[in-house]
């Protein structure tokens, strides 16, 4: 994109689209005032004797009544649009006192780009960076002396800075810990450059109008019990959506023009380094996704939140550099100064961001308490891995008790009735002719209410509907998967849509508060199936019980119901807690108390697991408990794969295929061979939580 007369064409295009948005606002105002204007004309015509007669009298009454209805409604809509609070991304404010070097770097970057410096800096627990305007909708730009034929705010830094308050610079916290100072500067250059177009009065006014409409739609969507309020909200929502549809294309083109102008302006600043830094952006994104789903999520479900997530992503990516020859060059960067050195207290900031991440991705409380406490990486194996395995093993035996499965397994000593792995193996083992998975497409198959082969009774938990499945629980069958390489880590990026250039000059109108779609939502849903009678088949039930034997299906149903009950008891844990995240400047920054967290988690990481996955995880857990109690194995933490079983300091291998063989076909042979090789004794009781 070139420049014309010293003015960037991207800004010209953005201003043109901004004026189009403002024209929509003006037309809406004109339509609202039209009945009142017509009523005034008719009333004046009648009083002067020009518009007299029965017809004019009727028209005067009709138009006057219409004006009395439309004008108050228009005023109400305008007040809601002006006063409604738009969506704001949850962040942790970084005050200038806690990061003077970071503020100095950003201001120097703004000076080089000849744009206003951001008004504040905040961190988000995600891998993206952008500008966010947090100016209240009622606060318009101050008057600016200008020539109407000119383009104010372009090329004159002083006038730009006085026209509109600068937006807040939001930085992804993983960037600060993984990137070097020069790389962070290069990545932020096109983002900071966006403050120039953002300072233009017309663009700022258009953005405020769009944010107000978006917030008005949210207000209208809120549940109301009063019939009058429901009618008013329905009208408000209809008007707001109509105006948003009218502005949508112009707003999109306006933001595209702003991004183009910002990228054009930033080309002269660290352009070569920015190309290299973009590689680190993708790597940090993938490592952060892997850390959250494999490492942090199991801890959150145990009521613990890792207090150093950003340090963890560095450890995860460093581990990747050791395992993958394609990542050998990444380790050499670690000798350079990390961007987190720009913070006065990196540990305090990391802790605040880690707690906010637990709020957003899991829905935990906003502060530490007995059932929600921080955990350091050095304590993670004992406090999270060991405890989660033993908790799952205890749940597995409780469900077996409910099903009436006898305590003593085959090969156990007389009188032994403790929780053993042999009990689980005996229950899931099927004779050779019956070692076939249950068919999910059988016309009238319903594996849940099958009678237990040992007791002849139908399990009570098997009747629980599968729609009540609990939230996803850690899948420990993944522990023995090969360590991920660069291709493996690229998967999360593709699923979550990592940008090629995060925040490359775009300054959102509140759209960046929209959460990333959870994994799996990108696929189109399969059409509903029906049985041979034409009755719709519940695909969720089929998926939960597919690929298991009949005893496995019953046990999976019981575990799913038990997990659902436990989650129902624990889910209210985060309700009604203040939403201001702690940390440097918390409560005093621009992001304090600006977001509503009644529906948590805001950004769920994974969809619920199927019954087969739940069963596989619980069997893996009790196998790991037996290994720890009989052969001295230990719980461990793998930075890329999460909880791991260590024997003599090394990760065990080939556990996942053996467990799957038992779950899917009822064949315990591979698992027994694996345990025999390591010396694990399944008949010995295991210690439970």
Concise description?
With 689 residues, this protein is of the alpha+beta class. It has helices spanning 9-47, 54-83, 100-113, 157-163, 173-178, 181-192, 195-198, 201-221, 227-266, 271-301, 309-323, 328-331, 346-361, 380-403, 421-428, 486-496, 539-545, 550-570, 611-630, 655-665, 669-678, and strands at 3-4, 7-8, 92-94, 120-124, 129-132, 168-172, 304-306, 373-375, 529-530, 536-537, 634-638, 642-647, 650-651.
Commentary on this structure:
With 689 residues, this protein is an alpha+beta fold. Helix content is 51%, strand content 6%. It has 21 helices and 13 strands. A 4-stranded mixed sheet has the order 3-4-6-5. A hairpin with a 2-residue loop joins strand 12 and strand 13. Helix 1 crosses helix 8. The longest helix is centred in the middle third of the chain and has 40 residues, at 227-266. It starts with a strand and ends in an 11-residue tail after the last helix. Residues 1-7, 141-163, 439-541 and 572-595 have low confidence and may be disordered.
